[in-house]
Amino acid sequence: MTTPLNRPLSRPKLLVTALATLTLSGCASFSADGGFKRVEGETQSRLGANVQVPRPADSAATTQVRALLAKPLSADDAVQIALLNNPGLKASLAELQIAEADLVQAGRLRNPGFYFARLKRGTEIELERTFTLDILGLFTIPLKTEIESRRFEQAQLGAAGDVLKLAAETRRAYFSAVAAQESLVYLEQVKIAAETGAELARRMAQVGNWSRLTQMREQLFYAESTSQLARAKQTVIAERERLTRLMGLWGSDLGFKLPERLPVLPAKPVERTEVEATAMQNRLDLQMAKQEVAGMAQSIGLSKATRFVNVLDLGYQHNTSNEAPRQTGYEIDIQIPIFDWGDAKVARAEAAYRQAVNRTAETAINARSEAREAYQAYRTAYDLAQHYRDEIVPLRKKISDEQLLRYNGMLISVFELIADAREQVMSVNGYIESLRDYWIAETDLQGALSGPGSGSNKTLAQPAASGDRN
Relative to the CA of 173, which of 28, 219, 401, 423 has its CA 20 to 30 Å away? Predict the structure, then answer.
């Protein structure tokens, strides 16, 4: 609906209005770092001071990745390569740029409109000129900017969460790959011992010194060890390929080297008495949920402010005719709330706010539970690995030494010595698995204290040595 007003708008006032509008719109601009500085701060505080988060068009990343691949990878190296080279992470970080673009757009006024018409009636020529501005948009810029600013902060936390999640997944894959590679070496020894026992049993059975049943038992163990070795080789391939995908490698970079052994078990576990409080303070997903609630509250205010007025445009008119006096003035274009009073829009915003509040409460409950569970799993994994290291493996070695003495004294046969060697190797392999589980549990604990799926590599920086494995 167009309502002409008789009072003209003077040119000085029109100029002041236009300049104020341009000034407000000019305040909305892109930041120098694109929001990545906060992402780097959030991730470096959890992953270590030297970790680098990729930025758009980072040409130095490839050089750094190649330098890290030139040596056997540590867990820290694998994480850094993944952060610099994983295409999925780069795609996720683009959401941060999208959020900043929305923030900048929210701080800019809708472009003014200009209408021009030339009408001719006989000898009369009428020219109509109308310049319109979005007045409602001008008044709601601060509120819209505040809402988008919260969403931008939420996007920064989300980007940091994506970085932490990839880091944790890479660490888990790294420990699994190294453990699978190390276990393969010991299973190959088991297979060699089983093959030797089966061959000796075959020969003993041929000369009649062994029964057919005893010979078949040795042959069965050899067959089972062969199948276990085949599965172990496939596990090595699968775990290595999983790590390769997370690091985003292909082509000539597939020949990267891993260390022969897992990091040793720390001298003592990390004692944490306030895991719930730490999670409530540091969890990124909880911070994002709080930001969402605040943003929903702001959205309710915007919905209520615009529930009756959806379109409010101010237009300056300047009409001239060669047969009539010049006409100047302004017009306001407004929608009349006859059928839609905006109550549905406000109700929707309020329901979304209540939904966000309940989701935040759920996130807090889950964070507390996950922190408790992860810490108990961490302590259990440490205790099991320590039990293998200090009890099972040393005791198995002592038994093996005694068996060797008995064999040298001709008190036992070579088959008993081979069987004992197989059991010793399997004990060491059990320790490898328990040590792998510990490092994965340590990663999960850091993730539970920082955000779902996230992790930290601080513990691996300088592990406390506790002795070599037997």
Answer: 423
What value does the CA radius of gyration of the chain take, rounded to a whole number of Å?
36
132-141, 264-273, 284-293, 303-312 — which is least confidently predicted? Answer: 303-312
Mean pLDDT is lowest, of 56-65, 95-104, 239-248, for 56-65
Q: What is the pLDDT of residue 303?
A: 63
pLDDT tens digit sequence for 149-182: 778 888 888 888 888 899 999 999 999 999 999 9
Residues 408 and 410: their CA atoms lie apart, in Å, by: 5
CB 436 within 8 A of CB 152: no
CA-CA-CA-CA torsion sign (345, 293, 285, 146): positive
Chain position carrying tokens 């302004």 = 330
The residue among 247, 68, 262, 269 whose CA lies nearest residue 170 is: 247
Strands 324-334 and 312-321: antiparallel
Q: Please give the torsion angle defined by the CA atoms of residues 369, 372, 373 and 374, in that order, rounded to the nearest 10 degrees.
A: 120
- Interaxial angle between packed helices 36-47 and 87-106, expressed in degrees from 0 to 180 and rounded to the nearest 10: 140
Calculate the alpha carbon distances from 55 to 25, 59, 88, 253 in Å. 28, 9, 13, 22
Percent of the chain residues topping a pLDDT of 70? 75
List pLDDT tens digits, range 77-114: 999 999 888 888 888 888 888 888 888 887 777 777 77
Distant-in-sequence, close-in-space partners of 156: CB < 8 Å, separation ≥ 6: 35, 38, 39, 42, 96, 99
DSSP letter (8 states) at residue 251: G
Nearest to 72 by CA among 279, 259, 327, 311: 259
Task: Return the structure tokens found at 200.
Answer: 């000796």
Residue with tokens 């490839």: 62
Handedness of CA 45, 46, 50, 54 (dihedral sign): negative
Three-state SS at 268: coil
Contact between 451 and 164 (Cβ < 8 Å)? yes
Q: And the tokens for 88?
A: 């999925």
pTM for the whole structure: 0.75
Who has greater pLDDT, 348 or 94? 94
